[in-house]
């Protein structure tokens, strides 16, 4: 029996988001350059995508590259971009076979052309996937996403196409890049850091947070199942009292 057998199949989070952290430290511990950690992180990505599929999670968002990551040394950024392109190429067949649909969020226009071309191709090739929706956050900043949404809404109001009274949570959600996905039920961060790092700030208002000391390249299926098991022990109250939830 493994952790998967202990999961309550009726209480699987619909959407899990992950801050994949600790690649650099994992490599450093082994006396290797940081990119060695990123390369080994790809195996953890593959295992996590499979684990999400096995549990019945419908949406998995992976924080692969933040806008702040552009400030890393050029060699590391270039290596990460190559890794992304190679991983996309190597995994396409597997994703299609497993009915995974790939989507992205983030500032795609800042990515190199070759990365965008590969992304467009895989998004098109997996568009009929009926299983897991895998969302890669690439050059993503939650604050930037919110600013862009606010600008669009402000323009509509200024043009007289929207009234102030129509601005509510639903409307703001509809203007975010995640408009067609449900909010994450569970957010996981690896490597023992306790931060959200500008990731899905609006969308995670009621997400359950799970932090593990495991460094991302070591993250395996059983770690994902453990996180879901922990999630299933939580009482999601959405601001109500525990009694209100019990008598629901
Ligand atoms: C954070 O670790 C990790 C990243 C910035 C990159 C994540 C990328 C991958 C796992 C590889 C490719 C991804 C896909 C989707 C194929 P860090 O470098 O901040 O680690 P540190 O905190 O120990 O320095």
Kindly describe this structure.
With 248 residues, the protein is an alpha/beta fold. The protein has a single domain (13-141, 184-232), classed as Undecaprenyl pyrophosphate synthetase (3-Layer(aba) Sandwich), CATH 3.40.1180.10. The chain contains 8 helices and 6 strands. The protein has helices at 23-29, 34-55, 74-97, 113-125, 142-158, 169-174, 221-232, 242-246; strands at residues 15-19, 59-66, 101-105, 133-140, 186-189, 208-211. It has a 6-stranded parallel beta sheet, with helices on both faces. Strand 3, helix 4 (113-125) and strand 4 form a beta-alpha-beta unit. Helix 2 runs parallel beside helix 3 (74-97), helix 2 (34-55) packs across helix 7 (221-232) and helix 3 runs parallel beside helix 4. The protein is globular, with a radius of gyration of 19 Å. The structure holds farnesyl diphosphate. The site of farnesyl diphosphate has 20 residues, from helix 1, helix 2, strand 2 and helix 3. Farnesyl diphosphate binds at residues 20-25, 34, 38, 41-42, 45, 62, 64, 69, 83-84, 87, 136, 191, 216.
